[in-house]
Amino acid sequence: MPSRPPPCPALPGLLLLLLLLLLLLRPARPGAVGAAPFEPSWESLDARPLPEWFDAAKFGVFIHWGVYSVPSFGSEWFWWYWQNQKIPKYVDFMKDNYPPDFKYEDFGPLFTAKFFNASQWADLLQASGAKYVVLTSKHHEGFPLWGSEYSWNWNAVDEGPKRDIVKELEVAVRSRTNLHFGLYYSLFEWFHPLFLEDKSSSFQKQKFPVAKMLPELYELVTRYQPEVLWADGDGGAPDSYWNSTGFLAWLYNESPVRDTVVTNDRWGDGCICRHGGYYTCADRYHPGHLLLHKWENCMTIDQLSWGYRRDAGISDYLTIEELVKQLVETVAYGGNLLMNIGPTLDGTISAIFEERLRQMGAWLKVNGEAIYDTHTWRFQNDTFTPNVWYTSKPKEKLVYAIFLKWPISGQLVLAQPSGIPGETEVELLGHGQPLPWTSFKPAGMVVQLPQLTIHQMPSRWGWALRLSSVI
């Protein structure tokens, strides 16, 4: 039996008191969301408070970019639809445009990113009014946009661009904008031999997460310190196979972004809309009612694809009116909007995506007060006048009525808020002058809107009223 170590000498009372005072006065980590360590269980992890910045942000931009941007046909699931599903239009596309022996891997060198300019991207993101960006660091095809040590040369540093795309965008975003930098990461890979071997064992084996997925995730977080970690693609495997709770416990307790990082709900089969930081529930999710748990509507400007596709027609793209409506409804129901664009193989953001981003930024420049840092109100939409949505700032005693159609009569009837004579003030954001209003029986308000020409309108595609001291 080993001998016991000698006892530590007693500290002088004054020194002990000084140490205790230092511990008590030590400042908390900035932005800390919880002092106690989180256990690797969903009960513990789900209890972690969401960092406040995420709910305040309301609007982010998703960027789907990878080798699938080379064929740029049909969908970012091109490889799967061509090789696994053998969908005729994909098979025919390859027959008509590429040699018979052409493999998906041969698209890798053609993914050049020749015109990718991270500074230009960052400036456009800033102009969009977004408060965070999420880049696909690796999609289901398994091609990382950084020099992953675990990718066997199938990555953007060793193949194609020969550049660390993730690092370039991270530096540009953090040096040129006020956006939070986030990364999407697909847990599984369609055709990775280790994943396929694990799948054939009904996921009793864990070769793929041990050798590839987990080391890559640790590498990604440590190198680039994303404040959004957007997991996706469970491949039908449960979270126990991915060791999701173990990884998230490290992320929340020890990682360099432990105090500010937010995560979503796609950490294994059965987790979506149940576990994780905020809920996504489904692509293009729109609950149609208030959700008490923080959620995100991740959606695409191109209604049929997340990646760029050359076969898209103009009617496939959502108009700015439709996008503003998506943003307003999502925020009124308590969610964030994550709006996706898909750059081309050479790193160009096409004109239609740029236009939509800049249009959204122009709208938010005037009406952002009714979106950013807001909370839901007791009513999400007006029950009398269609296309009117509500947000609020309780501390300032403000309610915002966002209306998407300018009434022909020049009067906007609001059935939910009731004004207090002598106290309630109404202002059109971007206009600057108080607007007259009268009571609407049995409850509500009738606001007299200003008579403006189209060139005098403070914004297009939607307007917001600031209502103070309403009941």
Automatic annotation (TrEMBL):
One of its GO terms (molecular function) is alpha-L-fucosidase activity. GO terms for cellular component: extracellular space; lysosome. The record marks 298 as: May be important for catalysis. InterPro entries: FUC_metazoa-typ, Fucosidase_C, GH, Glyco_hydro_29, Glyco_hydro_29_CS, Glyco_hydro_29_N. This is Alpha-L-fucosidase. Residues 1-30 form the signal peptide. Its EC number is 3.2.1.51. It comes from the Eukaryota. Keywords: Glycoprotein, Glycosidase, Hydrolase, Signal. GO terms for biological process: fucose metabolic process; glycoside catabolic process; regulation of entry of bacterium into host cell; response to bacterium. It comes from Octodon degus (Degu). The keyword Hydrolase applies. PANTHER family: ALPHA-L-FUCOSIDASE, PLASMA ALPHA-L-FUCOSIDASE. Alpha-L-fucosidase is responsible for hydrolyzing the alpha-1,6-linked fucose joined to the reducing-end N-acetylglucosamine of the carbohydrate moieties of glycoproteins. Homotetramer. The keyword Signal applies. Belongs to the glycosyl hydrolase 29 family.
